[in-house]
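Researcher: Checking consistency across runs. Here is U4/U6 small nuclear ribonucleoprotein Prp4 again:
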Amino acid sequence: AMRRLEAARAQKEVPEATKTIRQQELHKSLRNLNNFCSQIGDDRPISFCNFSPDSKMLATASWSGLCKLWSVPDCTLIRTLRGHNTNVGAIVFRPQAGVSLDQSDVSLASCAADGTVKLWNLESDEPVADIEGHSDRVSRVSWHPSGRFLGTTW
């Protein structure tokens, strides 16, 4: 908070002309971004998304309890992953998913507000395993770069 306040005070001292130039430069760089598609992902808010290591899929997590796999770049729904009963906090691809793992291997992990952590493959819309032992909300999961370990946070 202290650093944020210092930055806000420093920004207050910047001349208006300099702020305008910076804003124009930002808008100029944003014009180079391309939006290939847009899609409504769920009835409830999307809480997290993660691209696959091969950049061919996007996984989304929603407060509806659903996770979805989408094709990239056309944004076509590949599969709806059903297994959570409450807000899903995150879904992440395993580092080798879609590259060197078989479709039946564990390729994704997701977590939810009820303390559930589920493991998924790319073949089924149901989880292949549950990780137990969390008594409270699990807000994020993350794979170790080796793909051998999974970290969870609350």
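Researcher: Does this match what you'd expect to see?
Model: One thing to look at in this run: The mean pLDDT is 91.
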